[in-house]
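Quick review question:
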């Protein structure tokens, strides 16, 4: 049985699909189409799959998109794939259209969040219509959280019968061995930024852009810094939206309490160094960083939006706050500062919940079971 995964960038494949490849390879002949110049980028992970370079742009680029669509169609026809499975919006639209016209029997797309959820007007209608088209071309839809699936059904993008969630949610689960409490990493990161062990460290880790709510986090931390001397904020990740200068402008009076780190390939070290994780996003498909932080033994403060509400049990493994409300976020942050024992209590509960619901093994096993079910049904029919 020949399976082709389609993604836009290498990072998505490395982060979300490698463990699935390892689990599925004994049963399926797997290829992956991705925008890459290095066909061997998966070899260091010990993954035996065929990498097929395809030029797919992340942003809307009509001429380039048409070329990518035709390229995918020819590849799918030539290789006679039995299954085409896409992740991410652009690769989803192009590969589901190509697979539909190539008459691939099983066409799967995984939704990991909606760009249009925070848009308005024409942009929202356009992007939403693209999701509707790819969903219509797919035979099966996977969604990485239950609350996101409910949102998509309510918005008329997917049907209840065609869509499902693997296990309890998440596209790939959490690696409990990698994301775990680590005293050595905690000491090294804190020493790097000259942060005393007595200080409470809040952490954001992810892409810097407006949809992540970083300006709300900056305003909330400004309020915290004015009240508490033992608070620090680490913001780690690639600055895609030129946010660093804006954050420092808001927090000019407390800039010495904020530490920035560019993209890191060891997020687990920063989670081990932190006390509380913050995810003030306006949109998330699932919020995998929350369960990674939970696995590392730290509680989270997250926006009360679909996707994040799956990952935080409010008042038990962390706190939810009203998205876009820096005052509410600051209130939740101050609760942890005022009661440090709560950090350990909720961190312990978060770790237990992550292990019980979102382990990597649970999600990869659910994916394999899903594949065996849908391919058997198609072949039998």
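Suggested answer, residue by residue:
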């Amino acid at each position: 049985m020949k399976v082709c995964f389609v993604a836009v960038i290498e990072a998505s494949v490395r982060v979300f699909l490698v463990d699935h490849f390892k689990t599925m390879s004994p049963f399926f002949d797997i290829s992956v189409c991705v925008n890459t110049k290095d066909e061997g980028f998966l070899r260091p992970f010990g993954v035996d799959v065929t990498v097929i370079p395809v030029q797919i742009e992340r942003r809307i680029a009509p001429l380039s998109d048409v070329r990518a669509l035709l390229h995918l169609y020819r590849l799918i026809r030539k290789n006679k794939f039995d299954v085409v499975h896409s992740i991410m919006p652009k690769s989803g639209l192009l590969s589901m259209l190509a697979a539909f016209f190539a008459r691939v029997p099983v066409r799967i797309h995984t939704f990991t969040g909606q760009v249009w959820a925070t848009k308005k007007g024409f942009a929202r209608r356009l992007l939403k219509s693209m999701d509707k088209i790819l969903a219509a071309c797919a035979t099966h839809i996977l969604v990485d959280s239950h609350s996101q699936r409910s949102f998509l059904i309510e918005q008329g993008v997917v049907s209840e019968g065609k869509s499902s969630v693997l296990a309890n949610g998440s596209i790939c689960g959490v690696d409990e061995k990698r994301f775990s409490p680590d005293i050595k990493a905690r000491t090294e990161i804190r020493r790097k930024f000259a942060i005393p062990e007595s200080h409470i460290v809040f952490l954001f880790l992810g892409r810097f852009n407006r949809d992540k709510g970083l300006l709300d986090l900056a305003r909330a931390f400004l309020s915290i810094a004015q009240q508490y001397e033992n608070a620090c904020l680490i913001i780690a990740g690639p600055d895609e939206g030129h946010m660093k200068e804006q954050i420092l402008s808001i927090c000019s009076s407390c800039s010495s309490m904020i530490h920035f780190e560019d993209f890191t390939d060891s997020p687990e070290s920063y989670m081990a160094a932190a006390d509380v994780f913050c995810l003030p996003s306006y949109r998330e498909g699932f919020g995998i960083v929350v369960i990674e932080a939970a696995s590392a033994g730290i509680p989270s403060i997250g926006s009360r939006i679909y996707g994040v509400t799956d990952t935080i049990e409010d008042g038990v493994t962390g706190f939810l706050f009203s998205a876009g409300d820096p005052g509410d976020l600051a209130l939740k942050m101050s609760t942890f500062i005022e009661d440090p024992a709560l950090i350990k209590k909720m961190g312990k509960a978060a770790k237990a919940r992550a292990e019980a619901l979102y382990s990597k093994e649970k999600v990869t096993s659910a994916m394999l079971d899903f594949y065996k079910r849908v391919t058997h049904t198609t072949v039998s029919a």
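Why it works: The chain is about 45% helix and 15% strand. The domain at 2-173+360-380 is CATH 3.40.50.2000 (Rossmann fold).
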